[in-house]
């Protein structure tokens, strides 16, 4: 079984209603071994740019990309 890895990244979006990132502004916050630590990093990054509507940070589940059959299992 693969570790349940999580990626937190963000950057400037072209439209605040989407996740269409300007690829030149992407910031990788990190890869985390569990949801709790990834969420903490996501909240911290998002809070630093809370007043900038064009900055977005997301938390992605890398383990779901590595093992698609895990999609039906809980986080």
Describe the secondary-structure layout.
Blueprint: E1 6-12, E2 27-32, H1 35-48, E3 55-61, H2 62-66
Describe this structure in words.
With 75 residues, the chain is of the alpha+beta class. It contains 2 helices and 3 strands, in the order E-E-H-E-H. The protein has helices at 35-48, 62-66, and strands at 6-12, 27-32, 55-61. Strands 2-1-3 form a 3-stranded antiparallel β-sheet. The model has no long low-confidence stretch (mean pLDDT 88).
What's this model, at a glance?
With 75 residues, the chain is α+β, with helices and mostly antiparallel strands. The chain contains 2 helices and 3 strands.
Unreliable stretches covering 5 or more consecutive residues: none
- If you compute it from the alpha carbons, what radius of gyration comes out, rounded to the nearest whole angstrom? 13 Å
Q: What's the number of helices?
A: 2
Task: Tell me the fraction of residues in β-strands, as a range.
Answer: 25-35%
Mean pLDDT: 88
Task: Enumerate the strands of the largest sheet in spatial order, edge to edge or round the barrel.
Answer: 2-1-3
Task: Report the span from N to C terminus.
Answer: 14 Å
Order of helices and strands: EEHEH
| Biggest sheet features | 3 strands, antiparallel
Oligomer: single chain
Inertia-based shape: globular
Helix content: 25-40%
């Amino acid at each position: 079984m693969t570790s349940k890895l999580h990626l937190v990244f963000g950057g400037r979006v072209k439209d605040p209603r989407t996740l269409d990132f300007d690829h030149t502004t992407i910031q990788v916050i990190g890869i985390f071994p569990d949801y709790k630590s990834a969420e903490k990093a996501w909240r911290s990054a998002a809070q630093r740019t809370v007043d900038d509507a064009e900055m977005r940070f997301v938390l992605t589940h890398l383990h779901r990309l590595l093992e698609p059959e895990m999609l039906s299992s809980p986080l």
